[in-house]
Amino acid sequence: MTETRIRSYERDEAVDRAGASERTGEETEESENSRVTSCPECTGRLVTDTEHGETVCEDCGLVVEEDSVDRGPEWRAFDSAERDSKSRVGAPTTNMMHDKGLSTNIGWQDRDGYGKSLSSRQRQQMQRLRTWNERFRTRNSKERNLKQALGEIDRMASALGLPDNVRETASVIYRRALSENLLPGRSIEGVATAALYAAARQVGNPRSLDEFTAVSRVDKMELTRTYRYVVRELGLEVQPADPESYVPRFVSRLDLPDEVERLARELLKSAKDEGITSGKSPVGLAASAVYAAALLSNRKVTQSQVSEVADISEVTIRNRYKELLEASDHLTA
Fold first, then answer.
1. Which of 61, 99, 144, 197 has the smallest number of CB atoms closer than 10 Å to its CB?
2. Whether pLDDT at 172 is above 90
3. Where do the record's region annotations for Disordered lie (predicted)?
């Protein structure tokens, strides 16, 4: 009997300690909640000002917390439809893909999520899924046309080393040409090349017609004819190419120092002030300026090397660099 009473006493004491600890925990949580939701000065209710990022007391106006981080979206929505339209998930959209990158693509690796190889039956099933997925991505002839053209633009831009902003601009130009029905009677490759050529000049990263002809599937005459047609019909504002925009690329290919580039720019500015650049090829002027600047800097560069880099004849370089030197002498005299 004595042992039974001792055990019951110990059990009751343990229960009392557990209840006391629970009450202490509840009191701690209540005190923490009171510190968060009540003002430390007047125990008033705190409100959050999301516009200014502050937590203030609505009774006395005390600023309890400031510079809080808003972890929500930067847009507002007033109904579920607007919220769904503004929600963003995944990679950003791009004009360089015919569906703007919104569709899915099934990978070519025949492996599951654990890296294990698929069986022959599963591989056949995945191949069928890839085929149907590719068919669903291009639902009509217009999307197939756009997919082929954007692939052609990406191929040529990669071969010419053009940046993404030129590719985006070319994709927008081609989409406009397709929407305004400018393609009948012209090849997809021709319009795509013309769009990329116009985009490179608009962005300020031009390439010569010979460079485009080398990587395009159309000849030079078709390219120039299609380019004039696209620019005229779409009303594109394309400024004449500036010879100075070709200089950094030529200097880099010839592995020349920055001094040569600076002198070449000065020669071109002098020629522009003298008015001898109008009506002349900007590529020829840039190549001649680089050759003349290399001579002035005592750099060993031959006309054939510059001709190969710029893809122009040596005769053009000989004629133009003398004119540039004469224009520079006139300004310094």
1. 61
2. yes
3. 1-41, 79-126
Binding-site residues from annotation for Zn(2+):
39, 42, 57, 60
Query: Annotated binding site, which residues?
Result: 39, 42, 57, 60
Q: How far apart are CA 323 and CA 275, in angstroms?
A: 11
> For residues 212 and 156, is the Cβ–Cβ distance under 8 A?
yes
| Alpha-carbon distances, residue 194 vs 20, 227, 231, 284 (angstroms) | 82, 5, 9, 21
CB burial of 35-63 (b: ≥16 within 10 Å; e: otherwise) equals eeeebeeeebebeeeeeeeebbbeeeeee
Cα separation, 323 vs 181, in Å, equals 46
Q: For residue 46, give the H/E element and its range.
A: strand 46-49
Structural contact between residues 174 and 166, judged by C-beta atoms closer than 8 angstroms: no
The pLDDT tens digits of the residues spanning 27-41 come to 444 444 444 578 888
Structure tokens at 57: 């007391």
